[in-house]
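Lab channel / #folding
Pinned by the channel admin:
"Please post every new chain as: sequence first, then the structure tokens as a reply. Keep commentary short and put observations after the output so the thread stays searchable."

First post following the new format, from NK:
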Amino acid sequence: MSTSSPPPSIMNTLELRATISLASVFALRMFGLFMIMPVFSVYARTIPGGDNAVLVGVAVGIYGLTQAALYIFYGWLSDCIGRKPVIVSGLAIFAFGCAVAACANNIYWIIAGRALQGAGAISSAVLALIVDLTTESNRTKAMAIVGGSIGASFGVAIVVAPLLYTVIGMSGLFTAIGILSVLAIAVVLWIVPNPKLPPLHIKAHFNEVFHHCELLRMNFSVFALHATQSALFVVVPRILVGAGLPISSHWKIYTPVMVLAFMLMIPAIIIAEKRGRMKSMMLWSIIAILISPIVLSQVRHTAIAVATALLIYFTGFNILEVSQPSLVSRLALGTRKGAAMGIYNTAQALGFALGGVMGGWLLKLYSDTAVFYACFILVFSWLIIAIPMRIPLTVNSYSEVH
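Reply from TO:
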């Protein structure tokens, strides 16, 4: 049987509606999550217990830890009872966690609220629903749209968060995040289409998902990507304040950085996809992320220097954030897709959790430079692991990399 690529196809109305609506669910929820990152480490200094950098790191990372504990289960459960009940329940739990955090008056209650937010671990079920509602020929496009929505929500969130924080405070931010999650529930119930058939996938042993070599590389990739993200944001807002830039002005750094990073990401993705150079693009993106902590550890922390390092970092970050989910969907052909997405998102959440804790611990015991060195070591290990990876050109080439 030929393994040549299928001819390009255009999404039908159902696929387009499913992709855009589910991408908006992702974007609404991730927008709320990302709004915390650029302001929390500065805000924490104003509440009881917030002067402890380790607890600040735990508050950032506990979200990922509870996600990691539930992602695989939610992915499996969505295979059994359907995607939508799992997604709606997860968003409701997330909203309850927002309410707890909004009412918190010390770091410990914020940690509790963040843990509840993480317990609404819906990503694996959302990605699996996209798989259910799209054809194989359009799945990469759908995953790229979802990845792009996440990247865009991150870019907008870190720009507007410092401004909103000065107006409504941290409690107001958590309340706004809860409202966004309720809006996401409405989108799932009334806009996202229902699959024509219940989830049905080719049966495979669960060990196949854990032991697939290329999926393991992708899982480590997303782990390292989000570990560096959360570790850096324990440190970067404080560095900017120390450089004389008040938190209400951080948008002046984040806006040009995210706009330029997004503009660089789009042609990189298009060219790599058309020319079959996805592996090269991924490796160069990892190198960009590797360079950033070197710059931050070696230069004087002026606003321009930090902005330059962040631009290098987020160019690589955005490319990988957009491209990796679609690659996982290719590699997961013939397995329990919900379980495969669950493991991928578990690795992502663990990275987010451990990165926040690691960043806070190293900042407390040593300095921000120690955080940058740790990020460098992690990303260098990631690069070594990624170099031998084999990326399928199409979903039909799964057997070639299995």
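NK: The radius of gyration is 20 Å.
TO: also worth noting, Confidence is low (pLDDT under 50) at residues 1-6, 395-402.
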